Amino acid sequence: MKDNGRFRKRQHSFTMVSNAVLRDPSLSLMAKGLYAEIASYIDIPDFVLYKSYLVEVVKEGLRAFNTAWNELKAAGYLKMYKIRSATEDGKAAWKYEYELLEVADKETPCLTVVGLDGEVKAKEIKEEKTAEEKKNKEIVTEEVAEREIREQISYDILKSEEVGDMPTIVDNIVSIMEDVYIAPEEEKIWVNKKYVNAGLVKKRLRRLDEEHIRQAIDNFRETSRTKKITKVQQYLLSILYNIAVTFEAQIEAEVRYKKE
To answer: How many beta carbons lie within 10 A of that of residue 200, not counting itself?
Structure first.
C-alpha cells in the first residue's frame, strides 16, 4: 500500500529534540541520533516520512537501525498504530503508522490496533488470538494458514521492502510457516538439529510479527555472506523458531555493548 509505514506529522515547523530524550540514560547515542533524524524529517512541509526511507539513509546498516528503533519503542518514545483498512478491490488489509513523542510514555502500549471504524481494537484482537490459540489442535487448510500468516507478519509491507539479493525470502518464510501451521499437533518437525512437536513450533511461530521477521531476514543475510547455507528452508525455520525468544535478549545485548 502506497501510504503504509508513514510517520504522523507534528504541529511545529522546526526540528526540536527534547532534553528528556537527550538526557535519557537508557538510550544509546545511536537511538538518540535516530530520534533526531526522524524529528528533522517529519517537520518538513509537504514531505511524508516512511520507515523504509529511514532504513535507506542510515549508513550504519539494518542491524544498527533495528537496535536503535527498538530502543525508542521500549523507552516509550516511539508508538506504532496498526490500522485496518480496505483495498480498492474491497479486501481488508493492515497498514502501519508511527508517532514520535517528545516525552516518554510507558503507560500506553507500544502498539495500538485500530479497526475499520476507527475504534481501538486491541482488546478484541487479543480475544480473537486467544480463541485462535484454543483451536491450535485443529488442522487448518493451506489457504487459511497462508491468509493468517500474511496478516500476522504484515506480508505486503515486508514484500515492499525486499531487496535484489533476496527477492523471494518473504515468500519462503510464509511457505515455511504454512507447512508448520497445517501440521498435526503430534507430528515431529526437525528444527534446531532435533525433532520437536509441531504444536510447540506453531506456538513459537505464532508469536512472530513484522519486526521479528525483519530481524530474521537480517540474521539470515548476515550469515549467508560468510557461510554457505545448503539447507536454506531448515536454516530459516531454525531462525524463526529461535527469534521470538532471542530477539529481545539480542537487542538488550547490542545496546549494552554500545554503552560500554
So the answer is: 13
CA atoms within 13 A on the CB side of 165: 7
* 81 alpha carbon, distance to own chain's centre: 12
What is the model's pTM? 0.49
Q: Given the C-alpha cell 521470538, which residue does it identify?
A: 244
pLDDT tens for the chain, 260 residues: list them.
455 667 776 655 556 678 888 899 989 999 999 999 998 888 787 888 888 888 888 887 777 888 888 889 889 999 988 887 766 666 666 778 899 998 999 888 888 888 766 676 644 344 344 444 444 444 568 888 898 898 888 888 888 776 666 778 899 999 999 999 999 888 999 998 899 999 999 988 988 888 889 888 888 888 888 888 888 889 999 999 988 676 555 545 544 554 45
The 8-class DSSP code of residue 139 comes to P
Residue 229 corresponds to which cell in the numbers above?
Answer: 547455507
